[in-house]
Amino acid sequence: MSVRNIFYRSIKSRGLRLTAQRKAVIDCLVASKKPLSAEDIYLHVQRRGLGINLATVYRTLDTLVESGLAERVGMELHRAYYTLCRGRKHLHHFFCKGCGNSYDLPHCPVKERTTEDLIPEAFTVTSHRYEVYGYCGKCSS
Amino acid sequence: MSVRNIFYRSIKSRGLRLTAQRKAVIDCLVASKKPLSAEDIYLHVQRRGLGINLATVYRTLDTLVESGLAERVGMELHRAYYTLCRGRKHLHHFFCKGCGNSYDLPHCPVKERTTEDLIPEAFTVTSHRYEVYGYCGKCSS
DNA sequence: GAGTAAATGCGAATAATTTGCAAAAGGCGG
DNA sequence: CCGCCTTTTGCAAATTATTCGCATTTACTC
């Protein structure tokens, strides 16, 4: 089963309706290698010839986040970016404040250490957020 | 020398003017144990009987951040919070989803690696965010 | 104390996101 | 396949945090 279909099913299994707009937003995020803003998604979907309203994009993204299917990242750029939560594979990002692009970081601070090393006591870690901001090669110069 | 005065001096040493408004914003942040939003600061200063404009609070905070004297944190919910950088110490936190407490993390993922190791190319890093969520010892059991 | 550049106040402008409401459409039962 | 009922969408207007332009004020240098 394709990644798309897994998300389609997750929508339905939560009692939500699988509308054309929701499919389009999911397809867009599945196809993207980097987190996208609501406007990015809006434009991508428009370009594919599917009509969608920006408010609907926002509402769909809220729904995905509330359902635990997507994550809101990169808030320091005065704008939210969204990325799907995919199985075990998890990534962190570098956000360029110049051009707005984002790049995968090659490491994860939590994965590379044991729990004892990570925190003072034997706490239980459920999730984490790690983001680096700055300027990419082009925008630095 | 008081903490206040250290910040007052830092302002001047950067060629910036030490105005009544800047003093008020700094005093407010020095007195607070937690990060404050621009509006928090605006209201606190007003309450002390000092006139200040919200735009001035924003400009002052920008100035402090650009000068490396303050940090912008907690962008989570569409609003920025500010906290003074005290000494060289910069911290990341573990947030317990059970009791809501937060604990300092003993390490920083950015500090402990070189730029080449951190990102694909020689990008410029300006800031980062690193937060771990889970349950503390008491809330785990 | 005067001159000058920097900072402030004010109001209006932005930009991202949210909301109210009527119309459209998904998905259930028949 | 049809209709019903509820959810979702589109649209336009509202909100919210933050920024900007510009005239006025003020800190700091000489």
Residues in β-strands, percent of chain A: 15-25%
Return the string of H and E elements of chain A: HHEHHEEEEHEH
CATH architecture of the largest domain in chain A: Orthogonal Bundle
Summed up, the domain count of chain A is: 2
Residue share in helix of chain A: 25-40%
Q: Would you identify the CATH H-level superfamily of the largest domain in chain A?
A: Winged helix-like DNA-binding domain superfamily/Winged helix DNA-binding domain
Query: Mean pLDDT across all residues of chain A, rounded?
Result: 86
Task: Explain what this protein looks like in three dimensions.
2 copies of one chain form a homodimer. Chain A has 141 residues and is of the alpha+beta class. The first copy, chain A, has 6 helices and 6 strands. In chain A, a hairpin with a 7-residue loop joins strand 2 and strand 3. In chain A, helix 1 crosses helix 2 (20-31), helix 2 packs across helix 3 (38-47) and helix 3 (38-47) packs across helix 4. The longest helix of chain A has 13 residues, at 54-66. At the A-B interface, strand 6 of A face strand 6 of B. Strand 6 (124-135) of chain A pairs antiparallel with strand 6 of chain B, so a sheet runs across the interface. Chain A binds a DNA duplex (30 and 30 nucleotides) through residues 16-22, 37-39, 51-56, 58-60, 62, 78-80.
